[in-house]
Amino acid sequence: MNPCVMKFGGSSVENIEKMQAVAQRILEKKSEGYDITVVVSAMGKTTNQLLELAHQASVNPSKREVDLLISTGEQVSVSLLSMILNEKGHPTVGLTGFQAGIKTSGLHTKNKIEDIDIEKVSRHLREGKIVVVAGFQGLNQDGDITTLGRGGSDTTAVALGAKLNCRVEIYTDVDGIYGIDPRLYPQARKIDVISYEEMKEMAFLGAKVMEPRSIEIGHRFRVEIIVASAHTRTPGTLIKEFDPTMENKSITGLSVSERVILVSINHLPSGPKHTADLFIRLAQNEINIDMISQTHTPDGFVNLAFTASFDDAPLINDVLKQVTDKYEDVIISTDTDIVKISVVGMAMRTQSGVAATLFELFADHDIDYKLITTSEISISYTIDRVLKEKAVHLIALAFHL
Amino acid sequence: MNPCVMKFGGSSVENIEKMQAVAQRILEKKSEGYDITVVVSAMGKTTNQLLELAHQASVNPSKREVDLLISTGEQVSVSLLSMILNEKGHPTVGLTGFQAGIKTSGLHTKNKIEDIDIEKVSRHLREGKIVVVAGFQGLNQDGDITTLGRGGSDTTAVALGAKLNCRVEIYTDVDGIYGIDPRLYPQARKIDVISYEEMKEMAFLGAKVMEPRSIEIGHRFRVEIIVASAHTRTPGTLIKEFDPTMENKSITGLSVSERVILVSINHLPSGPKHTADLFIRLAQNEINIDMISQTHTPDGFVNLAFTASFDDAPLINDVLKQVTDKYEDVIISTDTDIVKISVVGMAMRTQSGVAATLFELFADHDIDYKLITTSEISISYTIDRVLKEKAVHLIALAFHL
Fold first, then answer.
1. Between B92 and which of A242, B85, B148, B305 could a Cys-Cys bridge form, CB atoms 3.0 to 4.6 Å apart?
2. Is A92 on the interface with B (CB under 8 A)?
3. Which residues of A touch B143 (CB under 8 A)?
4. Rounded CA gap, B12 and A255, in Å?
């Protein structure tokens, strides 16, 4: 077997005509001798339309039933794409998540892939079929249909690549990964090769092309991932193991997260049990905290600030309400008029000058920041939204992105 | 447990508003102390819209993928109805066919229920939940999603009733079973109680309220079925075991099948292997033959005529083509400008006058018929379509329907 996984997103399969083009692309790849597993998302805006229906049915629809509902979206595109490929003369088989053996766990609408029983997919591939698998969905231990949350179809594709031990090709509306989003900085350059670490960091930090979870799986199982355009034949970006030839640039990318909420909690009683209580509540609601910063006051209180996705704002406000109910003196404020700017590069591990250059740049141009966080290969700042473009251009110029 | 199965068709759940009314109806029943399993069809015209998409994707879409596609219709209505019931304060669980343990076999798009692993449904009922099950679908031995063909949701409901050993209530747009379709004969009377045999015969013979398959299952497992209006509180028709109190009328009903094709095959070589060959080919294509009539000629040939559903006309023509290819001298003609009129009644078993009355009626009023078939409790005639209304009125008057 010479397996290959190809993944097409919702906009690539939004109607039958576009599916025809996708089918053509798949058959070209097939004619190169690959045994192809295709992963597809729901057609166009289907998932949102189904969610709309759910909210007509119920103010707060049961998440289990939401999964049952929205998982139909991929099932429809799988069956139609399978029919089209079949019509073009190739044996195919369309599989839902559960049929493809995708086992998940976690909270409904935010499940994680636990394992894939690859036997069925492999058998169909051995029989020469093109296997079309529904992205974004699986079955949990209770036999309930689940979905994987944002970027879930990428996760399905990479997990299948891990099990089939092959390369995964993610076809999107962009032709690869850029050091900076070209909409923010038109002179941005496309990256030919990037390491899992850098890509993961960029994804975490807001580059929206791929979700960090899928890159994490790719990294863990050493799955080479290509991100390329569904519409052109331009070579895309290869995401792979870091190797020293990648080390010749100081930073790889800059990403900007727009939908950020900054929460500041002042005058919380000191002591790990109080902060732990807060973060456990946030975690129980599956709210992903991004940046965290904490300081102490001499009179025994803690000032805490964190950022999270703006999408989680309603959930966060619920948790904050619980905090104010519990601690009378606490002062809470939230700010959504900010963006997070992050620079990423493996070189930061070895070149200490990167952070210094950034601090100097911001000081020279009067760009104030509220939170700073660093990882081994990145540094992030929250700045006021109005300063976004100025900061992006300064950094891009300084680091030749 | 005090189980009850309620089934709602596509027009009863065609939008959220109608689903709200259905939910209200379910909760009323629940408040009477029943443990309720609901079976729903796809919303309104969803199945047809999905089939339309399939035909855009492929001239001759793979039936396996058609099943994968159209089964999403019931999954959507199950999840939405479950959300609505849940919103109204009742614990619910929505289940697809495979989740409800419905095991099927046969040709895709025309599967039959083999068995139901009722454990999961029972467990949810014991936990006090309203269980909402997708009608019309199941899973076959290969783990492929299947659908049950026309009337499939009724079949799902009655099969669940058989497993749960309880009454099944079929909610429709009509308020019960009539001796004659009121659209054909406005003075028609609703039947309060009817035996499985009569109902099955009427369904076979064209009364469209229920498919014969579901009544057959009801009969075999002694499931009491009520057919009633989804919109009013009028008592419906109870379908149950025959008992002598039903015997006081000579015929129960008259039904008319509109979509009939009459095939006449003349000059086929005599001998059972030739007719068997024809009927085996028809069966392999899952074409249901209705009336059959055969005569012999002195010179060793057979003249054969049969009727089938007009929907199967393309498949039938394929088979007829094979026959003409094989037997050069055969002469084949088809007629679709006919209807089949049938009268049904348990009384025919004991009252020999029914058939005589009919023949006399037809002779007196010059109504010519091409094929006649009889069963223990019915007699059917094919007549020209133009004579339909005349025949219906004559029979209704003669037998006080």
1. B85
2. yes
3. 99, 120
4. 51
Mutate to test the interface with B, among A51, A62, A119 (most CBs of B within 10 A): A62
| Cα(B19)–Cα(A267) distance, integer angstroms | 50
Q: Could you tell me if A38 lies within 8 Å of chain B, comparing CB atoms?
A: no
CB contact B337 to A (< 8 Å): no
**Per-residue pLDDT tens over the stretch B66-76:** 999 999 999 99
Over residues A104-140, the pLDDT tens digits come to 999 999 999 999 999 999 999 999 999 999 999 999 9
Tokens 């966080």 appear where? A373
Query: Are B66 and A79 a contacting pair at CB < 8 A?
Result: yes
CB proximity A160 to B under 8 Å: no
Do B65 and A86 count as a contact with CB atoms less than 8 A apart? yes
* Gap from A216 CA to chain B (nearest CA, Å): 31
- The pLDDT assigned to A220 comes to 94
Strand residue runs (E) in A73-167: 92-95, 102-105, 112-116, 130-134, 137-139, 145-147
Instruction: Please say whether the dihedral angle defined by the alpha carbons of residues B199, B200, B202 and B208, taken in this order, is positive or negative.
Output: positive
Q: What's the predicted TM-score (pTM) here?
A: 0.80
pLDDT of A350 reads 66
CB-nearest to B57 from A56, A72, A83 is A83
Q: Do the beta carbons of residue A290 and residue A308 sit within 8 Å?
A: yes
Q: Is A154 helix (H, G, I), strand (E, B) or coil?
A: helix
CB contact B60 to A (< 8 Å): yes
Give the strand pairing for A137-139 and A145-147.
antiparallel
Q: What are phi and psi of A34, to 5 degrees?
A: -90, 150
User: CB–CB of B230/B25 below 8 Å?
Assistant: yes
Closest Cβ opposite residue B16 in set A57, A76, A87: A57
Pairing mode, strands B331-335 and B260-269: antiparallel
Which residues face B264 on adjacent strands? B305, B333
Domains of chain A: 3-172 (3.40.1160.10)
- Work out the minimum CA distance from B49 to partner chain A, whole angstroms: 12
Question: How far is it, in rounded angstroms, from Cα B270 to Cα B288?
Answer: 23
> Among residues A103, A104, A108, A101, which one has the least CA distance to residue A70?
A108
Cβ neighbours of A147 (radius 10 Å): 26
Closest CA to B113 of B140, B75, B132: B140
Residues of chain B with pLDDT under 50: none
What is the pLDDT at residue B201?
82
Which letter does DSSP use for residue B351 in this model? Answer: -
Strands of A331-335's sheet, edge to edge?
A289-296, A301-309, A260-269, A331-335
Q: Is the Cβ of A21 closer than 8 Å to some Cβ of chain B?
A: no
Q: CB under 8 Å to B38, separation ≥6 — which residues?
A: B5, B6, B7, B8, B26, B81, B130, B131, B132, B133
B21 vs A contacts (CB less than 8 Å): none
Q: Do A16 and B56 touch (CB under 8 A)?
A: yes
Contacts of A317 (CB under 8 A, 6+ apart): A334
- Spell B138-147 as b/e; 16+ CB within 10 A means b: bbbeeebbbb
Place of tokens 């590069």: A345
Among B57, B79, B144, select the one facing A80 at the smallest CB separation: B57
Q: How do strand A225-229 and strand A253-257 relate by DSSP bridges?
A: unpaired
Number of neighbouring beta carbons within 10 Å of residue B330? 20
In chain B, residues with a C-beta closer than 8 Å to the C-beta of A54 are 79-80, 83
* B329 close to B266: Cβ distance less than 8 angstroms: no
How far CA A180 is from CA of A243, A250, A399, A401, in Å, comes to 22, 14, 11, 7
One-letter identity of residue B321: K
Look at residue A66 in the predicted model and tell me its pLDDT: 97
Q: Which residues of chain A have pLDDT under 50?
A: none
Write out the H or E segment, with its range, that includes residue A91: none
